[in-house]
Please model this.
Amino acid sequence: MTDADYLRIATEEAFATPELMTLWRDMLDTGTDLDPGFVSLVGFYARHGGERARTVAERLQDLGERRLADMDAAGIARQVISLTAPGVQVLAPGQAVAMATVANDRLAEACRRYPDRFTGLTAVAPQDPSAAAREIERGVSLGFKGVIINSHTHGEYLDDQKFWPILEAAEALDSPIYLHPTTPPRTMIQPLLEAGLDGAIYGFAVETGMHLLRLITAGVFDRFPRLRVVLGHLGEALPFWLYRLDFMHAATVRSGRYDAVRPIVGKPSDYLRRNVWVTTSGMAWHPAIMFCRDVLGHDRVLYAMDYPYQYVIDEVSIQDDLPIDDAAKKAFFQTNAEQLFGL
Model:
């Protein structure tokens, strides 16, 4: 796996601190009226005794030799690492700010130990937008190259103007926001949860794709035109909806049906091509990758593994075999990530 003429940079790779894992377990043990998405997601990885839950939880907390050995086995030169869902976004504001600080300090220490292998994204607590903006600035001083937002925060989304200090800071500091999935909020989850579809199989994409679409239709990218957002899993299905998004958005604006749907400068597809990058995390499938390269642009699609949740070495080989030339493969695996994250 080391004979390629390019470096493989994996851009959606997760970690968790032991402190946060302990806090999540305590919440499961003592909490009342917990968010059902939190119980479903964290309850499995923190409490289930099966092999998958155990090995994922162990790998999440390793920022050293085991992670490096897994990277070497798959031919991964560098990981762009971020705090796993749900991160600190399920906590009370003060506790969330404190735990984000700890997570960033732990990740920064690992990046200093392995500067050629690890790059970090800044975890923030959207519950306190001003503190989150300050933490983005501190993250830049720590050497981090972007921001991780694990989608909704207690069922609230970044199109709400109270969160815009976070977007303002990210734009001003040229820090891409990786908008990563979490389980849908309690107002959305029940039909998915009762069918076992609330997680990565479907619910993640539905919820996170909606989050980005809310940003677009709310005019966020008109207010912050240089803001860059990254979506995993080949854009959480939105690239496949470009035509219909444009058609129905225009029709809805004309109808005046919803106060929330007002004119924006461009079509939804314009913002997806201008402000959004997508990664292949968990989507090692040639037809979908090639489609996204075609409709979004080859410079907007980059490699990710989704470690440790989908650590499948064969999927690296599958993407090595994409029907594109060597220069395009180098961009896909290496230089697109270098340019986006400033590596």
